[in-house]
Structure formats: C-alpha cells, structure tokens
Amino acid sequence: HQFIPVYSLGPEESIENLKIEIQILKNRLETLENSQKVYPKVKFFPLNDQKRILVTGGAGFVGSHLVDRLMREGHRITVADNFFTGTKSNIEHWIGHPNFELLNHDIVNPLYLEVDEIYHLASPASPPHYMYNPIKTIKTNTVGTINMLGLARRVKAKLLFASTSEVYGDPEIHPQPEHYWGNVNPIGPRACYDESKRVAEAMCFAYAKQEKVQIRIARIFNTYGPRMNLNDGRVVSNFILQSLQNQNLTLYGDGSQTRSFQYIDDLVNGLVALMSGNYTRPVNLGNPDEYSMGQLAEIIRDMIGNGNEIVMRPKMEDDPQKRKPDIFLAKNILNWEPKVSLKQGIQKTVDYFRNELNKNKNNQHTGETSYSHNFYYLSPEEETKAKEKNFKFEL
C-alpha cells in the first residue's frame, strides 16, 4: 500500500489563513453593498393615498427638479421625455426606485396611462432649441398638448400646462399682468414658440369649458439654476460659460433690455402650489426683481472674477426689450413669491457649471462620454483644434 502524506498547518498559519479569507469575504460584501443603489429619502404614503403623477419633459431642466420634489413627497411618478433637450443624468438618481417610471416617449404621439395629475412641461424652451426645428416645436405645443388634454379627459386627471412669459411678446405694458393680451409677431423667428404656447392655452380653456377638464396654467418667466443645458443659449448660461472659460461676455443689442430671473427652486414651489390650488386662469410665476442684460453680465463677471470685457453684438430679431412679471395673483391666490436672491442662485449655478465643465474636460482626455450632460461645450480654440484633428464632436 502506498501512503499519501498529509501535512497539517500549525495554529499560527491556520489563524493567518482564516484572517485572509475573512478579509476577502469582507471585501466582497463591501462591493455588493456599494453596488446597491441608494435613493434620496422619500416620505411614506399608504398606496391608496399616493398620487399617480405624469411629468412630461421630466428629464429636462425644470422637469427634473419638479420630479425631485414630487418623489420626495412620496408620490408615484411617471416621466415621459423624448430627450431632445432633457438628459437621463438629470433623473438617474431615481431610476430603479419603485415609485418611479421613465418612458422614452414623444408626446406628439398619444400616451395611455392611469394618472391623477399631469404636469405638462414637454417643450424646448430656449431660443436656439425651439428655433432649431420650428415645425417640431409647434407640433409639440399643439398636438402634444391635445394628447395630454385628451388623456386628462379620459382618466379625469388634473392638468397643469407650463406656458411662458413669451405669450406677452415684446410687451407694451410693464410689468406684465395676466390680463394683458400681449404683443407678439405671428410670423417672426420666435413665433413657433410664442404662438404655439398661446394656442395651447386656448386649447386648455376649450377642454375646460367643453369637456370639464381641470386645468392650471403657469406663465413661467426666465428661470435658471443647476441642470441647465451647457449649450442652452440663454443669457445666464452664456454669461457663466464665457466667464468660466475666460472669454469676453457677449451682449446682443446695447444691453439695456431687461429680464427678471427666478431660481429653479422658487419655480418648483410655485408649480406645486398652483396644482394644489383651485385657481383655473393663467398665473405668472417669476421673480419681479428686474435687471438689464448689462447689469447681469457685470454681476456674473465680477462673481467669477475673470475681469474680461463685455462685447456688444447686433440685436436679435424680436428680442423683447422689457420683461417683468406682475405676481399679484400668485402672492394673493397661491401665497407664493420667490425667496432666492439673484446672487445666491447665480452662485449655485456657477458651482454646477464649473463642475460640469471639469467633468467634460477630464472625459475628453480619456475619450469617454460625459453622462452629466448631452453636449460638450468647446471654446473657440478647442473647436479649431478639434477640426484640425478631424475629431467628431457635438455642438
């Protein structure tokens, strides 16, 4: 018979091996724990008390902040977005949550759901985006709104339509109250947005009168904050990007035209208050603090501290010269008014943009795609180099 020798480990070696194995198991457990997604805290609602809420355009700038608010309140949220200007990164922290559902859907096509409330925000909102495809903009705001009103009628849901201060056009009354009918060029470059929003308001009232649909209409004035598109084309994002990239700030016209800027958190509070209330006519949601474009450029430049020049460019066609909301109705009916000052809000927005630019810069070096934003923003020098090297990039 042949004997196979058996080697036994000493006590010290056995303990040492066990320690190694325990550490390996700890590492595996830690990896598993880290791989499980941690969601922001939400309130608990019994199933029968939860509202089923649809947010169209919920992956966009305003929509994603509204989704955050509604999710934290414990409701069941469905987002419908075709990602023309919205991004999944804006709502990725909710993906997989049992109260959250994301639909890649263009509302120009009908949508069949069972919901209690609809926040209808779907539409490109900045001039470069809505003028890029004016026919699509018109269809989104007309056909898309008819589809949402039809859904609200079928399931007896309440619908809030996100209208715009652009319905006032280049106003002849200042500030603009809700009873002002506006001064809009129906065939100008902005007409695709301005007029389609005006038609959508008319459709909301037609459905309310004829089909008894519960409607709410928010006329939203200039809004800014984190999650704005880097290439948004609006004045706040333009000035912040130019300042952060040490470029001259560009003003279109002489810089005397005025706007009123509200921070995104204030707008979300206003939208929720409007949906919760009983008022069915249009309500202005905006900050009545008025600034000229020249003043805004100086505030942002001084806050970031690059000291570059402010350069004048030719005036944009149909660019309103004055824009300031009369928020008497919002104050008295909704008990709402903006709380965040311009400097507080701009600082938060600057911090966000700086972080996004750093992410894009780092990802360009590694050849990876930034998931924090749809587009890369290239400086003129970077764009020239990219063209010379025949790189592919999106503007």
Automatic annotation (TrEMBL):
Its EC number is 4.1.1.35. InterPro entries: NAD(P)-bd_dom (IPR016040), NAD(P)-bd_dom_sf (IPR036291), UXS-like (IPR044516). It comes from the Eukaryota. Its cofactor is NAD(+). SUPFAM superfamilies: NAD(P)-binding Rossmann-fold domains. It is found in: Golgi apparatus, Golgi stack membrane. One of its GO terms (molecular function) is UDP-glucuronate decarboxylase activity. It is a single-pass type II membrane protein. It catalyses: UDP-alpha-D-glucuronate + H(+) = UDP-alpha-D-xylose + CO2. Pathway: Nucleotide-sugar biosynthesis; UDP-alpha-D-xylose biosynthesis; UDP-alpha-D-xylose from UDP-alpha-D-glucuronate: step 1/1. GO terms for biological process: D-xylose metabolic process; UDP-D-xylose biosynthetic process. Residues 54-349 form the NAD(P)-binding domain. The keyword NAD applies. Belongs to the NAD(P)-dependent epimerase/dehydratase family. UDP-glucuronic acid decarboxylase subfamily. This is UDP-glucuronic acid decarboxylase 1. It comes from Brachionus plicatilis (Marine rotifer).
